Amino acid sequence: MKDGPYGFRDAGEFRTVVGGFFERVRTDPDSVLAGSGLVLVFRISDLGLTLTLDASRSPNPPEMFDVRIEDGTPVALGACVYELTSETLDRVCQGALPIIVAVVTGQVRIRAGNHFAVVRVTDRAIRRIIPAYRQWRRAGNSAGPSLRGDSN
């Protein structure tokens, strides 16, 4: 739950902010996830939600991967499953907490998947979106994010 500059008031705000952001950036043809075959699942423990970034299918422009936010804890087969709070995900996406540090310090728990290979890909993908996510948050979730950090 929201406490300070990171996190979200409730599941609705999470869906609007995070869902809206990933709906926009999933069209990036240079996405690290596009064509990777990875399915990344983020169980958001404090809100009872699951965010899934699914790149298991071939990219179908303009959508380079699928994004789902669901109630509960559905898990796609073959996924790397991360468990964390919404505040931790927000901190990671804003660049305030590297995903690798979050894993090592126990703020993110990996519940399934090939830990080392997937964490490296996840880290690269997140580092690439940090400027656009920061802009999205500063603009009240309405600016057209670019992975270069400028407006569309």
Strand content: 15-25%
**Whole-angstrom Rg:** 14 Å
Q: Poorly predicted ranges (pLDDT <50, ≥5 residues)?
A: 148-152
Q: What distance lies between the first and last C-alpha atoms, to the nearest angstrom?
A: 30 Å
Query: Can you give the helix content as a percent range?
Result: 25-40%
* Domain tally: 1
CATH fourth-tier homologous superfamily = SCP2 sterol-binding domain
Give the C-level CATH assignment. Answer: Alpha Beta
β-strand number? 5
CATH topological fold name: Nonspecific Lipid-transfer Protein, Chain A
Residue-averaged pLDDT, rounded?
84
Supply the CATH architecture: 2-Layer Sandwich
Give the overall form.
globular
Q: How does the helix and strand content classify structurally?
A: alpha+beta
Spell the H/E element sequence.
HEEEEHHEH
SS field, number of helical segments = 4
Sketch the major β-sheet. 5 strands, mixed
Strand line-up in the sheet with most strands: 3-2-1-4-5
Characterise this structure.
With 152 residues, the protein is α+β, with helices and mostly antiparallel strands. The protein has a single domain, classed as SCP2 sterol-binding domain (Nonspecific Lipid-transfer Protein, Chain A, 2-Layer Sandwich), CATH 3.30.1050.10. The chain is 35% helix and 18% strand. The chain contains four helices and five strands. It has helices at residues 11-25, 86-93, 99-104, 115-138, and strands at residues 39-44, 49-54, 66-71, 80-84, 109-112. It has a five-stranded mixed sheet. The longest helix is centred in the C-terminal third of the chain and has 24 residues, at 115-138. The radius of gyration is 14 Å and the shape is globular. It starts with 10 loop residues before the first helix and ends in a 14-residue tail after the last helix. The relative contact order is 0.17.
